[in-house]
Input
Amino acid sequence: MKSALQKSPIPKHHAYLARMLKEPVFDPHWHFHSEHQLFLVLKGSGTRFIGDSVKSYIAGDITFIGPDLPHLWRSENEEEQEMNIAWSEGIVIYFHKDFLGKNLLQSNEAIRLRNVFHKSLRGIEFTHKTAATLKTMMIDLVAMTGFDGVLQLLKILNFISTTNEFNLLASAGYTNTLREADTERMFKVYAFVMKNFKQKIFLTDLAKLTNMTPTSFSRYFKQHANKPFSDFVSEIRIGHACKLLIEKKMNVSQACYQSGYQTLSNFNKQFKHITKLTPLAYKKKYEIH
Output
């Protein structure tokens, strides 16, 4: 994994950029930019990092990210996908919040829009019927040009500003304090965990990887990830278990042992702590929606 990058994707004299992505993997670089970003996964699965949020993603996943919020979609089976054995597909939309001018954004009519822009600073994921409707609207936007596209983007923004079917992602206290040296080291750790989370991970291995003592590494990781290392590993494992329960239709026991847990009791405890549901309740909730 590479360092956090800053990039400005919107061409000069354009109000927004909407494009279809068809690549072996999504952008593998930990990065951030000054634009707002709407992102829809059409094909592929893996782990999504937004600020200090770590969650799994599958096809249909839709997120809205505010300016300068670091993010990364790490595809599963990345090595195979880079060999063109599997592909990832999605739609990305970039725009500046004042693309129609600052006066409109500060008006009384735009109060809901200002609120959703503020929420996007933590990252938003849309769920249920909202996600299904938003998917269609984003697909339609990609095919539009000129002012028709601007009007469609406004419809999308109006729609997401009125829904209650969403979750905020990064914690309320999260701020982007990343430096290039930090991100390079942090994402060596992320890559190591993604590769080895199904087996026991020792702090001594991570300390060696980062040229630190175990104690120094634990302190360093908590400072930069906004959480203890053990919590981060649990989020990766439970995210993987969620995909096994839903995509692979595994039972709870299978998902437990294939996600790096040694006992069902610990798996159930960690699953409920992270998702607020038991594994069975999570599976039933997904099937209902």
The radius of gyration is 20 Å. Residues 180-288 form a domain with the Arc Repressor Mutant, subunit A fold (CATH 1.10.10.60).
